[in-house]
Design brief:
The structure holds 2 protein chains of 2 kinds. Chain A is α/β, with parallel strands linked by helices. Helices cover 39% and strands 18% of the residues of chain A. Chain A contains 11 helices and 14 strands. In chain B, helix 1 packs across helix 2, helix 1 packs parallel to helix 11 and helix 2 runs parallel beside helix 8. Classes of the chains: A alpha/beta, B alpha/beta.
């Protein structure tokens, strides 16, 4: 076990995969300088500029060309710089990459990892802060992954590179420097949740950085005698329904929390699934950003955030409602 | 052109391919219009056969092509099986894409035809990427990317060609200019000259008569040899004319009256090649026999397609994705 940052955990996974397989390569803007968040620092020295490839500011070409190179027999890791900029390559991802295998009757695969740094960090306003993970879950053909810890960023990156399907890989920008122990012998598995904390009173479901806030909320709740079970889904398609259903069968109470807009967010899918398969003791709570826009000024930006305190309060509410 | 160095055998081989393409398109039109067997839109390349025949002639089997929504001719020229193609147009089992793609997504990876595309211009960046893949893997194949004149007004045209130039990729971009962007005259929607755009991106550019298969094939031979040697991208602007409508059900009433008929009389690429062959002594009867054989082949393909079953219902969830497959969890 080694302690490393969330950014370096993914970098280690990439370096190991590139050493093992010469067809794995990375392409994106500024990769030769280590990437905009330094998440590629040192890789160009080891693997050279052909495999840690800079790219013009041409998101559509980065995505499209990586797809073509995947069909020609390579395994590209695509860097989109900011998840927001990946919208410039929406046709390439949604109409081409996600559909090619099916439309061509199984003649091709698109083994690609599409890295999209997501989420709010600090005063980056509406075009550099979005969390659009639920959009991608809506697109058949894509695997969607949102790791929240260094361990999961290592293990899921290895799994994503090994996967023959295109994986939309959303790393949260606010936790690049988050440190944690990483067991490089642990393998990641899509559709397998990370139970961050066990508890019998209330189930809290989340992913990405909000899952870290849920762990903090659960620690605060424990001081008030409420034991929350925190389920970090890690991947949203496929997602670990059985972990969630098993947990709510035990607790009978549910909170879902995510940074993205609450309206039609993936939390709605979780709540709907629980409603179809389980009976809760109290109504579920759903936390997400208001359907508003992310501002530059920090006080306005904060209006869009889901906090650990809000999560803890929502959990308490599910406990109170039963008794009233 | 002078006919002094006209290669009779090559001419006949090209005629055979071009007649096969036209016969495929006519059979497809019959299947769509007369028999209502083709349920979706198909885009016919009647009048544009010389571009497919000439540009693909010098390619090896392991070279790649990518095509457009109007891609039957390119696919046949690369060596795909017309029966599998016709089954695909009819959405039947045994189609090249098992009935899941239809005409606009026709593909045959066995002959390295990496797909037609339903989105204009979208194949340009993908084709550049296939060439990028070749370079990374150290291969000596090349890629030919076909697109229409309308694609020159989409972003991927700039991004894809810039990409090929920046990374020195072995790819030939072929703008198959049939003069119409669906139902709009492309010249009315295009600022400047398309070939100049490619030149401005630093690509060696050739402007050609896309309906003269003999001279176009000579250019293609020279250009593809050069690309294989230098590994550098090039651009061909091949001017042709779409003798049919945008789709098979488009009467093309937006064209000046008589334009298509006039072009068919003076600029049909098959007629022009036949005239050349005729002047070198090839008998009309031999050329008619080539035409009849092509028709027979494609009507047999249509028969095979007509008699093929629909794909199995349970194939609808196959080949979407391995992880999170809808076969296991669609809901």
């Amino acid at each position: 076990m080694a302690v490393m940052s969330y950014a370096n955990a993914a970098k280690l996974a990439i370096a190991e995969a590139m050493r093992a397989d010469p067809t794995v390569w990375c392409v994106g803007e500024d990769l030769g300088r280590g990437g905009v968040f330094k998440q590629y620092v040192g890789l160009v020295e080891e693997f050279g500029p052909d495999r840690i490839s800079d790219a013009p500011i041409s998101e559509a070409a980065i995505m499209g060309a990586a797809f073509g190179a995947a069909m020609a027999g390579t395994r590209p890791i695509v860097e989109m710089r900011f998840a927001d900029f990946a919208l410039c390559a929406t046709d390439e991802l949604v109409n081409q990459i996600a559909k090619a295998r099916f439309m061509f009757g199984g003649q091709s695969r698109a083994p690609m990892v599409i890295r999209k740094p997501m989420g709010m960090w600090r005063s980056s306003a509406a075009q550099h802060s979005q969390s659009l993970e639920s959009w991608y879950v809506h697109i058949p053909g894509l695997v969607v992954c949102c790791p929240a810890t260094p361990q999961d960023n290592y293990a899921m990156m290895r799994a994503a590179i090994a996967c023959d399907d295109p994986v939309v890989y959303l790393e949260h920008k606010d936790i690049w420097l988050m440190e944690g122990e990483v067991d490089t012998s642990a393998s990641g598995s899509f559709g397998k949740a990370n139970i961050r904390r066990t508890g019998d009173d209330v189930t809290i479901v989340s992913w990405s950085n909000t899952a870290n806030l849920c762990v903090k909320a659960a620690e605060a709740l424990a001081k008030d005698g409420i034991e929350a079970e925190v389920i970090d889904l890690v991947s949203l398609w496929p997602w670990d329904k059985s972990a969630v259903l098993g947990s709510v069968a035990k607790t009978g109470r549910l909170v879902v929390a995510h940074e993205s807009v609450a309206v039609t967010g993936f939390g709605a899918e979780v709540v709907a699934t629980v409603a179809q398969h389980s009976t809760l003791k109290t109504p579920p709570k759903r936390l997400g950003s208001p359907r508003g826009l992310i501002a530059y000024a920090p006080n306005l930006e904060d209006k869009m955030r889901v906090t650990a305190e809000m999560i803890a309060n929502a959990a308490k509410k599910t406990m109170e409602m039963e008794t009233t | 052109m002078t006919l002094s160095n006209f290669d009779r055998d090559k001419g006949l081989a090209r005629l055979k391919l071009m007649e096969r393409i036209r016969a495929f398109e006519e059979a497809a039109r019959r299947a769509a219009v007369d028999e209502e067997l083709v349920l979706g839109a198909i885009h016919l390349s009647i009048g544009q056969e010389a571009v497919a025949a000439a540009m693909i002639e010098p390619l090896r089997r392991d070279d790649y092509i990518l095509s457009t929504h109007r891609g039957h001719g390119h696919t046949l020229a690369k060596g795909a099986d017309p029966q599998a193609m016709m089954k695909e147009l009819l959405g039947r089992e045994g189609g090249c894409c098992n009935g899941k793609g239809g005409s606009m997504h026709i593909a045959d990876f066995g002959v390295r035809m990496l797909g037609a595309n339903g989105v204009v211009g979208a194949n340009i960046t993908i084709a550049a990427g296939a060439a990028h893949g070749i370079k990374i893997l150290g291969g000596d194949q090349i890629v030919v990317c076909f697109f229409g004149d309308g694609a020159a007004n989409r972003g991927p045209f700039l991004e894809g060609m810039n990409w090929a130039g920046v990374f020195d990729l072995p790819i030939l971009f072929v703008c198959e200019d049939n003069q119409y962007s669906a139902s709009t005259l492309t010249s009315e929607m295009t600022s400047g000259n398309v070939a100049d755009r490619a030149r401005a991106l630093g690509l060696r550019t050739t402007e050609a008569d896309g309906n003269d298969v003999t001279s176009l094939a000579a250019s293609a031979d020279e250009i593809t040899k050069r690309i294989r040697e230098t590994g550098k991208p090039e651009f061909v602007h091949a001017k042709t004319y779409r003798l049919s409508g945008h789709t098979y059900f488009d009467p093309a009433t937006y064209r000046p009256e008589g334009e298509a008929e006039h072009m068919r009389e003076i600029n049909c690429p098959i007629m022009r090649l036949r005239n050349n062959l005729s002047s070198t002594g090839v008998e009309e009867g031999e050329m008619e026999a080539i035409r009849e054989a092509a028709k027979d082949e494609m009507l047999a393909a249509l028969d095979a397609a007509r008699n093929a079953p629909w794909p199995a219902n349970n194939s609808v969830f196959a080949d979407v994705q391995d992880i999170g497959s809808p076969a296991k969890e669609a809901f």
